[in-house]
Design brief:
Layout (H helix, E strand, L loop, with lengths): L2 H37 L1
Length: 40
């Protein structure tokens, strides 16, 4: 039972990392959209 919480924490860490990547991607996409809008 000792390894169970560690696995859970690792899974949460993976989710947080993935979420961070998604947030970063969203931010980059918004910046690009703004640049495109400014170029028009």
């Amino acid at each position: 039972m000792r390894g169970l919480p560690q696995k859970k924490n690792a899974r949460i860490a993976d989710k947080m990392e993935l979420f961070g990547h998604l947030r970063r991607y969203e931010k980059i996409r918004k910046d690009k959209e703004r640049d495109i809008y400014n170029l028009k």
